[in-house]
Design goal:
Blueprint: E1 5-6, H1 9-17, E2 21-25, H2 37-40, H3 43-50, E3 53-58, H4 61-69, E4 74-76, E5 88-94, H5 103-112, E6 114-125, H6 130-139, H7 154-163, E7 166-174, H8 188-199, E8 206-213
Parallel strand pairs: 1-7, 2-3, 2-5, 3-4, 5-6
Antiparallel strand pairs: 6-8, 7-8
């Protein structure tokens, strides 16, 4: 199946969470220097605005406390073994599966927290992103988050989901939003990788998978 590139992952996510009860896994994900990802990427804020209800969970107890102090409905929990005593229409896991020790255990636990025919939306870095290849050519290494344990491409992510009774309904590629902003049009460091991904979408930086629970 040929995957197309989308510029805005929110356009994929919105139909599945609009007016629904949503669980956001990895809602804090603080970055080096103390930047709060839920603000910098806007994913949790988007879910909060679009869904009927949102519960965020994260292992980062300090980050969870900070979000609670700001009025967010969040709690500290380990997504591989938590029991929230409720089910959700949709679970969103943005850039979290590549951090896990046991992604299979995670998916089994997600199933327990999903309503019948509920949806799981995963976003994760693409192992074959063109930026990785450029870094290998320049430095013979790639930049890897200190807490990442694995890489995925569309084939391996689909295989993992299907092994744990999820049917992949849709899958897309996406790239950094700044690649498409007019003010960066003449920056080669954005335009060159954008050109390659236009020619070969499999070089895109991020995978977005929408999967339905069955069984």
């Amino acid at each position: 199946m040929e995957l197309r590139i989308i510029k805005d992952r929110f356009s994929v996510i919105e139909p599945y969470i609009k007016g629904k009860d949503v669980l956001d896994i990895g809602c804090v994900d603080a970055r080096p220097g103390g930047e709060k990802k839920y603000k910098s990427t806007g994913l949790h804020l988007f879910l909060k605005e679009s869904a009927s209800s949102v519960l965020g969970v994260d292992l980062d107890e300090g980050g969870v406390k900070s979000m609670k102090d700001e009025g967010y409905n969040v709690m500290a929990a380990d997504c591989e073994d938590m029991d929230l005593k409720r089910r959700f229409d949709c679970v969103v896991a943005g850039e979290i599966i590549e951090h896990l020790s046991n992604p299979g255990l995670f998916l089994e636990n997600v199933k327990r927290h999903l309503a019948e025919n509920g949806f799981l939306i995963i976003t994760t870095p693409n192992a074959f992103g063109i930026v990785n290849f450029f870094r290998i050519l320049r430095r013979n290494s790639i930049k890897v988050h200190a807490e990442h344990t694995c890489w995925y491409d569309p084939a391996t992510l689909r295989q993992l989901l299907e092994r744990h009774s999820f049917k992949v309904e849709e899958m897309f590629f996406s790239n950094k939003r700044k690649w498409y902003k007019r003010r960066y049009f003449f920056k080669l460091k954005y335009q060159v990788p954008k050109f390659f991904t236009r020619m070969r979408p499999y070089f895109s930086g991020t995978i977005i998978a929408v999967a339905r629970k069955y069984g």
